[in-house]
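Re: the 182-residue chain
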Amino acid sequence: MDVNVGARLRTLRKMHGLSQRELARRAGVTNGMISLIEQNRASPSVSSLKKVLDGFPISLADFFIGELVAENQVFYRAGELPDMGAGDVAFRLVGYNRAERSMSILHEIYPAHSDTGDEMLRHNGEEGGVVVRGEIEVTVGGETRKLGVGDAYYFDSRTPHRFRNAGDEACEIISANSPPTI
């Protein structure tokens, strides 16, 4: 069986709404490596490919023999939403299997005393969200606000930003960003 590894990897990455940089970060490789594989300019070893696929996650067998078809699914059960977060913070992605998404809709869950990390986030686009449970401290640029249930935010994502739950209960946010970063 002749498999175009680069095309399959690119399709899988886009189906999950990941940039090359985000997949590389999750897999612990350089984004240059992802780019070279997708362009079929590098043929990864089995162990290297496995490391990259762990960023989704998907098994080697499913990668080579599974169907990588973007679905036009409309409704999603809670258990179907893949967690695209890192550490304790969960980012459950709606529409993960749409290859050409123009936005990301997330159900974000911040356990007590969790955050997005010490380093401020920054990426192209805009994002906004509404707190549906608990409280969250949001820093955008030099401004920090504590938001509670029903409070919202909307900002240019190129501005350095960070989310922190300093409380003793979990915080949940429904958010969207465009273009999709996850």
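The helical segments are 5-15, 20-27, 31-38, 46-53, 60-65.
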